[in-house]
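This follows on from our talk about sequence and fold. I would like you to pick a protein and set down its sequence and fold. Go ahead and set the record down below:
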Amino acid sequence: MSTWLITGCSTGLGRHLAAAVLAAGHSAVVTARNVDAVADLQSQFPDSALAVALDVTDDSQVAAAVQAGIDRFGAIDVLVNNAGYGYRAAVEEGEVDAVQQLFDTHLFGSVATIKAVLPGMRARRSGSIVNVSSIGARISPPGSGYYSAVKAALEALSGSLAKEVEPLGIHVTVVEPGGFRTDFAGRSLTQSAEPIADYAETAGPRRIENDTVHGTQPGDPDKAATAIIGAVEAEKPPFMLILGDDALGGFRQGLQGLLDEADAWADVSRSTGF
């Protein structure tokens, strides 16, 4: 059995994953900004769950959470960077402070937790890092430019990280979910305060007051949790784990569109050499 540290366990995919990891017999550091939100998991699994308060944008809390896990269980074998929330706005509508907070949480918060667990993983020459992204990084829907951008940044960083740590026995997996029936499109969704009328037909339909998707998403978060555990435990874990038929379709369509355009402009691409 292994020890997992999962960020953002109060609700959503993180909550389902934490419960599944513990039910499978693993140990887990289950974290949330408000530790009371995960206290029930510790009560249900008193020997294998450790509830810890963690705001991933606070470096001191990141260090304390990792150390608490090491003190209790001896090591962190699997890190899952799941903490986050949605932000919707046309690019022109995006507020500087809100976008900075989005990147601080999704990207720099993940960097902080990765840096905190890597020394132990390197010393043991083993470990797994799972970074939860989104199909948005691939398809960039209108109205989700900033969210897509921060997830794309996380994926690019993960790609370099995977090549750096693979020789050290450490695996990196990016999870690209589609729509799952959690509160991500409900309580966890934010948006720009002032919409611009010219974007009503593009970014506008994705604004909270116009979005009717919440509660009807096709993905089952319990099945997603099982899939993530299976990927981590696989003999050869994937770098990219796509979750959901909608995500798989979007992933393939996005890649094919890029390939088609690359082929269409191939002569121009080749014409630029000396």
